[in-house]
Amino acid sequence: MVRNFLFHRVNPKRDILWDPMDVALFEKCIKYISNKYEVVPLEDIAFTNHLYSVNKYATIMFDDGYKDNIEYAAPILDKYKCKASFYVVTNCIDNNTLTWTHTLDYLFQHTNKQKIDLDFDFLPTELRRKKLLSTDDRIFYARKLKSALKKISYRDRRLVLDRIKYSYTDVKMPKLMMNWTDLTELKNAGHYIGSHTVTHAMLGTMTNEDEINNELLQSGNKIKQNLGFFPITISYPVGSYNEQIKILAQKAGYKLGLAVKQNIFNPYKEDLFEIPRIELYNESWFKTKLRISNTLENIKKIIGYK
Fold first, then answer.
1. Res 16: pLDDT
2. How far apart are CA 67 and CA 62, in angstroms?
């Protein structure tokens, strides 16, 4: 039984749409978790009997590859002698560009343009053409659009994202990602670096096997090229995967596949290619502790909340 705790960003600067975990809250989390459990990289215990130890182990994981992972999170991990795993989007590392999910939010939050025209018949009618006269209008719209984009095909999603980028060229995108030097530093400090695909593609919505293999293999090979090893772990972006993805990931050379699921990993019930993780957010310490203990999810199950 292993509690896998998932983080993305750790930063003192707030963001309405993409709020990082506050640095003080992150330290509270790491102190609390390291006091209750033995914190180890999942990759160190996944193929040992330790995986089956009840309530002994926890892991710390980061998705995407943000620069604040090494600026703010790594010193705290070092303070509490915790090793973590960092799963990176290799195109984002190569080019210092945001994931498509973050790009979408940032464009709508910072553009000065007051309308969007997405005349695609696969989108809900209310999202195709919109006047967005204020920042609040754009933020509200972006939240609804992102939810819709997660439910459509990979190719359709790319069409929409390309149109948005073309429409909002007035926005200068920030440089927020780590580079290979940063990742080498983390690796040398004893942390693990794994794959989060090439482009942060929602693998479960893809049907072209060659495109799926490209996301799986090129990301792993890029890590091998820069860090000297092909990673054993693939973290599925947005928790999107299916049986085909699990099979192709294994064929590509991965040995572990990470989902989200907000639950404790029970190796007696779940296989190594759909390992659940508990995502932690920038919210109250009371609620965060409920997530860490898995009490919040148990309450939801009891009351039938989805």
1. 81
2. 11
Cβ–Cβ < 8 Å for 163, 145: no
Q: Dig out the tokens for 157 from the structure.
A: 């999603």
Give the torsion sign (CA, 79, 82, 87, 91).
Answer: positive
68/25 Cα distance (integer angstroms): 14
- 204: Cβ–Cβ under 8 A, 6 or more apart, which residues? 236, 240, 241, 242, 245
Q: Angle between the 285-292 and 295-303 helix axes, to the nearest 10 degrees?
A: 80
Please report which helix (H) or strand (E) contains residue 175, including its range: none
Residue with tokens 């090229």: 225
Rama region for 239: left / alpha / beta (φ>0; ψ in -120 to 50; rest): left
Q: pLDDT tens digit string along 271-288?
A: 999 999 999 999 999 999
State the average pLDDT for the chain: 94
pTM for the model: 0.93
